[in-house]
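User: My collaborator sent over this chain with a note saying "see what the structure looks like." That's all I know about it. Can you take a look?
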Amino acid sequence: MSWAARRRFIILLIIGAVIVALFASVLTSTFYKAPSCTDSIQNQGETGVDCGGSCSQLCTAEVQPPTVLFTKAFQNFEGRTDVIASIENKNANAAAKNVPYTITLYGTGQSLIQKVSGTVDLPPGLVTPIYMPGIASGKQSMTRAFLTIDPSAPVWFSMTTTERSVPFVSNTTLIGTSSAPRIEATLVNATVNAFTNVHVIVFVHNEQKDVIAASETVLSTIPAQGQATATFTWNSAFSSTPAAIEVIPIIPLR
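Assistant: Without extra context I'll predict from the sequence alone. Here is the result:
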């Protein structure tokens, strides 16, 4: 082969290599996707599909499902029912935001009266109250209420109790009259940041530790290193003598 032919061959070989490299680059950028926590593939050290390992989402198998401790309904006036419940997150190092739940009301003979849904945040290692007032139940006599959570519904992520800042209740007082009871609670914010739009739920217990009344109020703000008063009122007497008052501020997970 002459020198001119060899030179043409080398040039063609170089051009061919460049074309192949460009083609490979285009194919790679088009079809290759770097491993991620949203690619529906168990990779990059994940302990499940898109969970565990390097992913912020924890796998369901790594955590305990939430436990509904109790559900109770109060028929406050004709055609309306208030429902309360408590949900326990036994995981000290895991939390879940906006967990969907369903409340089902049954009447005589297990007839379905109403089914409603909502969402709740589950902080690590805590019991979270639910208060859903004014559920339409019609003229039927309500006999039972259930709150359920699909165990696969929570999207768990790592969090410890020390990562959260919440106000604490420093004083609770039962005032008013027996026919129109009133509860006031002082909530203290020890942090340097104000809390806003704080939902506060109260459960009133009798000597048997049953909840005999419940209510909710919203504090527009609890100032930094300050305090605010939450007030709860009822238009009728409690069904039995109150023995304990449980006031719980609800701070959304961030």
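A starting point for your reply to your collaborator: The two ends are 74 Å apart (CA to CA).
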